[in-house]
Amino acid sequence: VTSRRSVRPPSVDSLARSLAGTGLPHPLLVRAARQAIAADDVESAPAIAEATRRSLLQPVVNATGVLLHTNLGRSPVNASVEGSAYSNLELDLGTGARGSRQNAVGPLLAEACGADAALVVNNCAAAVVLVLATLAAGRGVAVSRGELVEIGGGFRIPEVLASSGARLVEVGTTNRTRLSDYRRAADGDGNGVDAPPVAAVMKVHTSNYRITGFTEEVGIRALATLGLPVVADLGSGLLDAATPWLPGGPPAWLDGEPGARQVLADGADLVTFSGDKLLGGPQAGIIAGRADLVRACARHPLARALRPGGLVLAALQSTALAYLRRDAAAIPFWRMATIPPAELRRRAQILSGTTRWSVVDCGAVTGGGTLPGVEIPSVGVAAAGDHRSHLRAAEPPVMARVYEGDTICDLRTVDPGHDDHLRAVLASAPVGGS
Ligand SMILES: *Cc1c(COP(=O)(O)O)cnc(C)c1O
């Protein structure tokens, strides 16, 4: 009897209470305890609780060298909220009447890219859907066959277009599309018997791949001569190709990336872009351009379903103000992207001097489906072997990359405030001498 008693599992409650050190709320500990007992493996309870704790959102040190890392929330943002504050989210402080949550941030972004007006939604996919639903529901949208792209995460232009209620009218070929192709589509020639009239032309920035060789595409200026609204889905969200917020002007790695200001100046009626790619803000989608069209988007019933929350708008406002102040240092993405390699080398030498990791030249990338194949010269520390799981187990976790059998920590994406933590984690990694 005594022996049977000793193998009896502990009560769920006492097992849950034994896990209190994880800091998780009691119901989650009860869940972990139940799971362990159900699996007839009481010993696994701490690991289950720990896995739950590790699944919570938490800061991560990004040593991958990918500035906009999709798995790490794309662009880094300062998302601190002051106390438990209310805000004037939908209040006009002048009149005391109800205002619009779009009134604060939209005009700042419009100013920063030379648009008449701008509207913020949840992401660029939502921006595209809202624009197409507003301009072309039940009618045709002409898009070059060379721009029917998949951006990643299931964003495929033909499917997004269909979900807006607009009808895709394919124009040209994969590698070559001419203005005459668009003109024929606009005139309805060859669009099929049931084809609705074409209501807009959309040009999609092929953000994440390049077509090279025997190619031809039609620029915004030429498209603007067609007499239809021209929408440019830019995705990546470079506000201005002249980068007035960078003291040294545009870096070489930005060559060829279209800026919203230039695309609007060339005659696009609306542009759409993400908040968390090259804009360096929180996840959002921005629609900018002609005031009447932006207003029509804002009035569409879908706008209510796609509207961003106050936390996002507050973070985006900080980003927009930083652009208007030309203060790239206040935008983490631009701060990190433009650190001189010599500065990264200095930090790498300090890390290397106190660990068995060595200084290495490497190439960072913008990532997030932007600027394919473009590297930004960078410096990091490296050690032979794959140490990623050791680094990931740290608190906060450190994400590195493995290249040709070496683990590399690229310092371009690491905030210098994390260097001490990184040094401790690197020093404790089981790196062999040679
Ligand atoms: C990234 C991208 C999108 C999707 O943006 P999300 O903000 O992720 O929804 C749409 N269009 C283009 C051209 C893009 O590059």
What do you see in this structure?
The protein is of the alpha/beta class. It contains 17 helices and 16 strands. The strands form 4 sheets. It has a 7-stranded mixed sheet with strand order 3-11-10-9-8-4-7, sandwiched between helices. The protein has a 5-stranded mixed sheet with strand order 2-12-13-16-15. Helix 10 (260-265) links the parallel strand 9 and strand 10. The protein is globular and about 80 Å long. The chain binds pyridoxal-5'-phosphate (PLP). Pyridoxal-5'-phosphate is lined by residues 123-125, 151, 155, 204-205, 207, 233, 235-236, 274, 285, 369.
The helix fraction, in percent, is: 25-40%
Low-confidence stretches are: 1-5
- How far the N terminus sits from the C terminus, by CA atoms, comes to 59 Å
Backbone structural class: alpha/beta
